[in-house]
Amino acid sequence: MIDVVKVKDRDEGQRKAHDILKKIVNGETLLALSGGTSMDYGVMLVGPGDVVPGAICVVDERYGEPFHENSNELLMKNAGVKDFVDEKCVESHKVLRGEDFLETAKSYEKDIEQLFSMFKNKVGVMGVGDNLHTAGIFPYSVAAKSPNFVEAEEVEDKFPLRITITMRALGEFTGFVVMMFGAAKREAVKIMLDEKENDMQKYPAIFYRKSKIKSYLITDIQI
Question: Is the Cβ–Cβ distance between 75 and 35 less than 8 Å?
Fold first, then answer.
C-alpha cells in the first residue's frame, strides 16, 4: 500500500520526509535508516531534532572495516546522526564491528531479532536503485527469498559485499518512507507503481506497493 508524495526536488523531499516521520515515529519506534544519495539526514533528522525514536539501526551496509570510506555508517556519521543519537540518548546499532563477512551478518541478525521483539512500531527510511533493489535486496538475490532477517551476500554492484536485512525482515515493519529523486530513477518509479508488474524477486521494491504495510513514496519524478 503506497501513497505517492510529489515534491519539486530532493531538498523539499527531505523536509517532507521529516514531516511524515514526525507523525509516525516516537520513543517506542525502531527507526531503520538507508544510505545512498537520496537521503540527507542532516535536513531530515538532525537539524529539526524533533524525531526521536526508541532506537536506530541501518537496513544494509557495504562490508569492510568500521566506518570505511564507502560505508553507509560513515555517511550517517558525517550527516550528524551519531552526534544526534548520542545527544538524545537513543540506542543505536552498527553493522560493522571488525568481524569477518559471515560473522558480521550473524551478529547483526541477533541485533535485528532483538530489536524486532522490543519494538512493535518499526519504520524504515528506504532508497530504491535503478534496478529496483532496496536496502541490499537485489533482484533474484538470496536476501529476496531468505527465511532469515539478515543475509551476507555478494551481489552485482559497484559495492558487491553486502550485509542487509531481507525481504522477510521488511514484512515485520509497520511503515516506510521511500525516497526516489532524479530523472535516472524515472523508469524504476514507473515499474514500481505499475499494477501489471508483480514479481518481487525480479523487482524487490515492488514490495512497497504490494504489501499491506503503509508506505510513502516521496519523489520529484513526474510519471
Answer: yes
Sort 97 into a burial class: Cβ within 10 Å, 0-12 / 13-18 / 19+: exposed
Neighbours of 154 (CB within 10 A): 12
> With helix as H, strand as E and coil as C, how does 56-93 read?
EEECEEECCCCCCCCCHHHHHHHCCHHHHHHHHCCEEC
Amino acid at 182: G
Task: Specify the CATH number for 2-183+211-219; select among 3.30.70.920, 3.40.50.1360, 3.20.20.100, 3.40.50.960.
Answer: 3.40.50.1360
pLDDT, tens digit (0-9, with 9 covering 90-100), for 80-138: 999 999 999 999 999 999 899 999 999 999 999 999 999 999 999 999 999 999 999 99
DSSP type of residue 158: S
Taking alpha carbons only, the member of 21, 18, 23 closest to residue 47 is 18
Which cell numbers hold the place of 45? Answer: 533528522
pTM above 0.85, yes or no: yes
Cβ–Cβ < 8 Å for 72, 58: yes
Answer positive or negative: Cα dihedral of 91, 95, 99, 105: positive
